[in-house]
Write a structure and sequence with these properties.
single chain, alpha+beta, Transferase(Phosphotransferase), domain 1, 6-stranded antiparallel beta sheet, 8 helices, 21% strand, globular
């Protein structure tokens, strides 16, 4: 799991989409199996002419190390360092190739890292991680990213956090919109999975880790070069095949698989096993959500099933196609633990005292009424309750 920009690993209460409060595990006491601490920059290390000061190590992956840092405005940021442990090592702060033979690999990794930064700079969307800065130093490359307080979707699933259908619908709408934004710029993410979907403290999903992103040619797709980041259960068949065409549908498959995991609590079976079953005329071993799950708006689950089709031609043609499944408003089916009290306000109303009837005119001795002068009646008194 790579926490590129998803940074709060301590226990925290998170209001998810303004509906439900969840409690995340405290994992700060668990050992990190990914990192060789000898390769990590030490707290207090300054980068980019003192623009960034390393505060602590967050996580290491196969292609880089991420740190919590402070910028020159004393704000938290995430700094990601290009560091591939299989062919580089640390010498004080500098990153060196392990051998002369790995020097070219290291240079290629740095170029790919800077390409990732360039890709991110083209994307401006509320549900896509924002890059602040990229630079080269210590014989490697770095990027500064926004610091997202929250947890990735995989952690939430594994911690048995229950998401209501209403929450899943809202997450899906925002993530499909983010993917549409990526594709509109002729880019492919190529590594969508629950560990690359961060949920902010306010419940907003954010797509992170564009290390595998690719440029599309004329919006159609591109040939798989033979090197891909694949994740069983989430990656579509074309990412496993050299020279297969990778298209926007490849990202939609991965997003559909991630949502399937969030809805059912388990990842779908890997695509190769599914493809083998379908090719043999056997039923797809991944059950249809629309046929097995209830409580969602009409057509919502069928849209995820379509995105998760093992054959590319059976998927949505585009993210916009998927967005059309949201024509109907989401239906809240799970009870919400929120009591709404109606405040009844009684506005004061004017109460007008009735005008007293005039007393009968006094009578003369002969029984006829005396003549009296009539004055305008006194102003009625107004009372308020």
């Amino acid at each position: 799991m790579t926490w590129d920009a998803c940074g709060d690993a301590n226990r925290a209460e998170i209001p998810l989409l303004g509906v439900l409060h969840i409690m995340a595990f405290d994992k700060s006491s668990l050992p990190d199996q990914d990192a060789d601490l000898d390769d990590v920059l030490q707290p207090g290390t300054c980068l980019s002419n003192n623009q960034y000061r390393i505060e602590s190590y967050l996580r290491a992956g196969g292609f880089g190390i991420t740190y919590l840092a402070r910028n020159s405005f004393n704000r938290d940021v995430v700094v990601k360092e290009c560091f591939v442990p299989s062919f580089c090592t640390r010498s004080q702060t500098a990153v060196r190739p392990r051998s002369e033979a790995s020097k070219a690999q290291m240079q290629k990794a740095v170029r790919a890292f800077l390409n990732e930064a360039q890709t991110l700079s083209q994307l401006q969307h509320p549900n896509i991680v924002r890059i602040r800065h990229s630079f080269q130093e210590n014989d490697t490359a770095y990027m500064a990213l926004e610091y997202i307080r929250g947890h990735d979707l995989l952690d939430m699933i594994e911690d048995k956090v229950t998401l209501t259908p209403h929450q899943i619908v809202l997450l899906t709408q925002k993530l499909v919109s983010a993917v549409a934004h990526i594709h509109d710029r002729n880019l492919l993410h190529c590594d969508i999975s629950p560990d690359n979907i961060c949920i902010r403290a306010d419940g907003e999903p954010v797509l992170i880790d564009f290390g595998s992103a690719r440029k599309m040619m004329d919006g159609i797709g591109e040939r798989n070069s033979g090197f891909s980041m694949v994740k069983d259960g989430y990656s579509p068949p074309e990412l496993y095949e050299a020279n297969a065409t990778v298209t926007p549908g490849s990202d939609l498959y991965a997003l559909g698989a991630s949502l399937y995991h969030a809805i059912t609590g388990h990842a779908p079976l890997d695509c190769q096993s599914r493809l083998a079953a379908v090719s043999d005329g056997r039923p797809d071993p991944v059950p249809s959500l629309a046929a097995t799950v209830t409580g969602y708006p009409r057509g919502f689950l069928a849209a995820i099933d379509k995105a998760l089709s093992v054959r590319p031609a059976d998927r949505h043609a585009s993210a916009q196609d998927w967005q059309r499944a949201f024509a109907e408003p989401p239906v809240e089916t799970a009870p919400r633990n929120v009591a709404l009290l109606r405040r009844v306000v009684v506005k004061p109303q004017a109460v007008v005292a009735p005008t007293p009837k005039p007393a009968p005119a006094p009578l003369r001795a002969d029984g006829t009424p005396r003549v009296q002068f009539r004055y305008p009646p006194a102003q009625a008194r107004v009372q308020t309750a």
